[in-house]
């Protein structure tokens, strides 16, 4: 079975979503299905079919989250000694060698990745180039627009 690396924040977000789905959505949908069933003929009852379909999607998401959490390895980067090396969970300040443009990314699990929030999947090309390198190193990344070199300015355990 594959283990999924996950930050503490990523695990917490999944646990919160799971709690919402099981404690709020599940009862709401059960009630909606019950009310729709009382409307009579189920063959032509759009409310009933819509509620059942949504219930199926919610139950599938619950199973998905439970599976992810059971197979996760939660890594608390704040409890790991700072060595200046890029590892899973670290926040990395990098600068484009050519343009001097600075960017900050946190290396996170696939489920947590959100480039707009600066959360970079550990399996992305940039993260794969950064992991294992240290502050001051220059890494080469193949991007859709060509090869880009980044200098690792700072690695933080936050």
Automatic annotation (TrEMBL):
Q: Name one Pfam family in it.
A: GreA_GreB
Q: Which GO terms describe its molecular function?
A: DNA binding; RNA polymerase binding; translation elongation factor activity
One Gene Ontology term from the biological process aspect of the record = DNA-templated transcription elongation
Residue intervals of the Transcription elongation factor GreA/GreB C-terminal domain: 83-156
Q: Does the keyword Transcription apply?
A: yes
Which HAMAP family does UniProt cross-reference here?
GreA_GreB
| Protein family (similarity comment) | Belongs to the GreA/GreB family.
Protein purpose: Necessary for efficient RNA polymerase transcription elongation past template-encoded arresting sites. The arresting sites in DNA have the property of trapping a certain fraction of elongating RNA polymerases that pass through, resulting in locked ternary complexes. Cleavage of the nascent transcript by cleavage factors such as GreA or GreB allows the resumption of elongation from the new 3'terminus. GreA releases sequences of 2 to 3 nucleotides.
- Provide the protein name: Transcription elongation factor GreA
The organism of origin for this protein: Metapseudomonas resinovorans NBRC 106553
Q: What gene is behind this protein?
A: greA
